[in-house]
Design brief:
90 residues; DUF4235; transmembrane; transmembrane helix
């Protein structure tokens, strides 16, 4: 029962952390794109003025940053859950 209660209690925290991680990843991508491309705006896939290479490079960079932030938040949450409850989350 304690495990189910811990999961139920931590779920809203995990959702909030997910939203925060998405916001942080978005900001990191925007700054990284400025450094890499020297452009304030990342290309949109539907932008007719941008080439394939630029659009795919931006998508790859964005995906890498989002995956890195997601993994860091997930791992940090699991470690914190272990410290708080004594069990590793499923």
């Amino acid at each position: 029962m304690a495990g189910k209660l811990a999961k139920l209690t931590l779920k809203p925290v995990n959702v909030a952390l997910g939203f925060a991680a998405g916001a942080v990843a978005g900001l990191l991508f925007k700054e990284a794109w400025k450094l890499v491309a020297g452009d304030d705006d990342a290309p949109d896939a539907g932008d007719p003025d941008r080439g394939w290479g630029e659009i795919l490079a931006a998508a790859a960079l964005q995906g890498a940053i989002f995956a890195l932030v997601k993994a860091a938040v997930h791992r940090g949450g699991a470690i914190t859950t272990k410290k708080l409850t004594g069990t590793w989350p499923d």
